[in-house]
Amino acid sequence: MLQAIAARLLAQYGVYLLIAIGAVGGFAGYGIHKYNQGWRDAIAGVASRNSEAINAVRGAVSKVDDCSANGGFWDAVSGVCR
User: Fold this and answer.
1) 3-state class (DSSP) for residue 72
2) In the Cβ-directed half-sphere of 4, how many Cα atoms lie within 13 Å?
3) Which of 2, 26, 65, 81 could pair with 72 as two cysteines, CB 3.0-4.6 Å apart?
4) Residues 46-70 pLDDT 10s
């Protein structure tokens, strides 16, 4: 008896069930897409700031190296070669 009721409900409302499953899947897929897009944007922002910091450090190190190579002394407080 219970199987007959379930079969009748599935036959009558099965299309709506399929539509609901499709809608939930679509919303979930869209949510995952937006989450991944945000993640990629965040990683790209951090990577660009990392490369800026690395370039700044390389520039500072080369200044200190140039100062030492020319017989000077790098004053860390003033940031000037003496």
Assistant:
1) coil
2) 1
3) 81
4) 888 888 888 888 888 888 888 888 8
